[in-house]
Amino acid sequence: MGKRVAVVLAGCGVFDGSEIHEASAALVHLSRGGAEVKIFAPNIEQRDVVNHLKGSPSEEKRNVLVESARLARGNIQDLTELKADEFDAVIFPGGFGVAKNLCSWAVDGKNCTVNEHVNSTLQAFHSAKKPIGLCCISPVLAAKVFPGCEVTVGQDKNVDGRFPDAETASAIAELGCKHICKNVNESHVDKANKIVTTCAFMCKAPLHEIFDGIGTMVQEVLKLA
């Protein structure tokens, strides 16, 4: 029987929700790995709504669960219904929705608060010694919830202009965590905490390299599960 993996989304769209390519890549690699997947999202209002054509805020109000249902093809549940004992692992794709809806990192940085249901989900999997996979900006969730853990968001310097958000690594270190520098096609495994991270779109890279990096994260999660 395949591993049972929960995937937690943060909306739909890079600027205010889950990054669509990252969510899709994770689901493709999970499918290839024979995993049984269920998708969840918090039933909350988005912090903001961004017009992705103009790149500017919109006056609309949208719900994270409703928007995430677009990516899940309607097959999704409220995050409050996620029970860690029913799964072998959990994965959080990235996108600014993680930093806006799942926590307040987009506004507060390292002083952010984490949504209570996201926090309890992470704590439940960690306490049960079940693996947690995170990509792009999502590793900041682990950095905030599990002081002392090891994660990667790529590089800690803007190497060749490919890592414009490299300062995130410094903020992670300020939280008492260890940032591990990795390339886009790699992931890092914190064996002690069973946390697997990869930088995805934190790096300006061709889509196939991001896809491959997420693949290494998923493979490592499934190995640990």
UniProtKB/TrEMBL annotation:
Q: Which organism is it from?
A: Alca torda (Razorbill)
Protein name listed in UniProt:
GAL3A protein
Stored InterPro entries: Class_I_gatase-like
Tell me the superkingdom of the source.
Answer: Eukaryota
